Automatic annotation (TrEMBL):
One of its GO terms (biological process) is L-methionine biosynthetic process from homoserine via O-succinyl-L-homoserine and cystathionine. It comes from Veillonella criceti. NCBIfam families: metA. GO terms for cellular component: cytoplasm. The keyword Amino-acid biosynthesis applies. Belongs to the MetA family. One of its GO terms (molecular function) is homoserine O-acetyltransferase activity. The active site is at 142 (acyl-thioester intermediate), 235 (proton acceptor), 237. PANTHER family: HOMOSERINE O-SUCCINYLTRANSFERASE. Keywords: Acyltransferase, Amino-acid biosynthesis, Cytoplasm, Methionine biosynthesis, Transferase. Its EC number is 2.3.1.31. It catalyses: L-homoserine + acetyl-CoA = O-acetyl-L-homoserine + CoA. CDD domains: GATase1_HTS. This is Homoserine O-acetyltransferase.
């Protein structure tokens, strides 16, 4: 699948080494087709790593995607250069008049803070408000999923007794939604978080459905019944070594960090991690793009607001 990004984005070269086709804007402008407009709100501190992971996850569909990267102006990025942000990212003020077929809101390592304490919370809620009329479907990841559930549906996160860290088995609870098409009845997904959203509170909301869950990790995938909000509480986009780098970083800082569960063979950090979540990530992102974005979004993208309101009225 051709993914269109700003020319010279570092992720292009990395993905090309994996035989993933990424097209820059110069070539894309010569093609007479309507690509899907996808907005990625990247909240992670290591933005270049996350860009590559998300673009890789989006790469397994024949659809052409025109990617826009967005960063928060109310937060100073400590691990990403100003050059990178100014070259490849845009701000909300720069795109707020545009429409997008899909939006992805990433996780962020700030879950121990209340949402209102986050310095860019007001900016993020402004984006989530705006998305109601300017984005057809939104995919929220990890902290982004907790933030979206809290803001749109009033369900708050809760602190876990200890960090949920590792690769956990999840069970599909409903095979009918197209989001899970082709997925195994039991699948694996990495998690790295200190908080969770109580399953009973999600079940109590008639606008939401839990599609997959784990006895250990809790809710894994949740959707709003209109498919406009998809919440994924793990990280199916992670690289093989993402949890390892986090584990080694925390150990280097002298933190009390457990070996990530079900990640290393025999739970031995001296052995190479086993990837058991790649196909899950491929299906999640591909199915979301195909069935909840491409098959539903209007060809004239400016009609998103009208279509969403008509559907809401019918329901």
């Amino acid at each position: 699948m051709p993914i269109t990004v700003v020319k010279d984005l570092p992720a292009i070269a990395r993905l090309a080494d994996e035989n993933i086709f990424v097209m820059d804007t110069v070539r894309a402008e010569s093609q007479d087709i309507r690509p899907l407009q996808i907005l990625i709100v990247n909240l992670m501190p290591t933005k270049e790593i996350t860009e590559t992971q998300i673009l890789r996850a989006l790469s397994n569909t024949p659809l052409q995607l025109d990617i826009t990267l967005l960063h928060m102006v109310t937060h100073k990025a400590a691990h990403t250069s100003e050059y990178h942000l100014s070259s490849f990212y845009r701000t909300f003020d720069e795109i707020k008049e545009q429409y997008f077929d899909g939006m992805i809101i990433t996780g962020a390592p700030i879950e121990l803070m209340s949402f209102e304490e986050v310095n860019y919370w007001q900016e993020l809620t402004q984006i989530m408000d705006w998305s109601e009329d300017h984005v057809y479907s939104t995919l929220y990841i990890c902290w982004g999923a907790q933030a979206g559930l809290y803001y749109h549906f009033g369900i708050n996160k809760e602190l876990l007794p200890s960090k949920l860290f590792g690769v956990f088995e999840n069970e599909v609870l409903n095979t009918q939604p197209m989001l899970l098409r082709g997925m195994d009845e039991v699948f694996y997904m990495p998690h790295s978080r200190h908080t969770t959203v109580p399953i009973d509170k999600i079940k109590a909301n008639k606008q939401l459905e839990i599609l997959a869950a784990s006895e250990k990790a809790g809710a894994a995938i949740v959707r709003s019944l209109d498919n406009k909000h998809i919440f994924v509480f793990g990280h199916s986009e992670y690289d093989r070594d993402t949890l390892q780098r986090e584990y080694e970083r925390d150990r280097g800082l002298g933190l009390d960090i457990a070996v990530p569960e079900n990640y290393y063979p025999d739970d031995d950090p001296k052995k190479a991690p086993i990837v058991r979540w790649r196909s899950t990530g491929t299906l999640l992102f591909t199915n979301w793009l195909n069935y909840y974005v491409y098959q539903e979004t209007p060809y004239i993208i400016e009609q998103i607001k009208k279509m969403k309101r008509q559907r809401l009225h019918r329901e």
